[in-house]
């Protein structure tokens, strides 16, 4: 991919807090493009999820015990369908949104270029396919790597239970160790493969080469990447408490509405929750872009090469 070099005067090395500050600066500057993409691809599933849960909660009046012999309510079917829609949207639409948000952030950092909402949707068709297949390959690889220690711990638990005869204690202890080992391995693999999408868009190398390139860039940077993801996750968790507070407005609103129109309050609150939650999905792809450039600056001196090229052109 042929691009104009980065502008001279890049700051290196980027500090830990500087990376997080850069993420939220990009999110603030490119808010509407990023929010439109995340709301369109991920907000719909979130909306149906919260709307169906709200309908299920308001289907049974307060203080009335449910009838165990009553037929299944339509709201329960709606809850099940919302789970399916939410899962499918996260599995197949989340990579498409990540592709567009990553390219919007990359253009902002690479060229200082603004991306409109219409162009942001066009980026989905341009890069969504390769990003989707790479993300599927990434998760298949991670699941395959997790299966090995799980099978080892399972065999160890069965063997230990057969020797001691105390199956409950043996399988319980082994299950705790298996969960801890799986979480550690999953965190390690996720951090090492975190930069795959920026690699696809910047270096035009999808699929397996993108995963290998991400593994190379994050070498000796696991704890830095893990710390950034952890701090960003805590910040987003606090921000995600706002939709939880919005849900508390349901009872006051339903108090002033007739019984047959309580779905209106549920509709409005679900739309507001989906709008707030959509912004949460935008931050990790932006962090991946900022961290990708930081790793290339630190490991490969990419900004110094760009500055040298800039000086050569000025003196030519």
Automatic annotation (TrEMBL):
The keyword Transmembrane applies. Residues 46-281 form the DUF7847 domain. Keywords: Membrane, Transmembrane, Transmembrane helix. It holds the Pfam family DUF7847. It comes from the Bacteria. The chain crosses the membrane at residues 34-56, 76-101, 139-163, 175-201, 221-243, 263-293. This is Glycerophosphoryl diester phosphodiesterase family protein. It comes from Melghirimyces profundicolus.
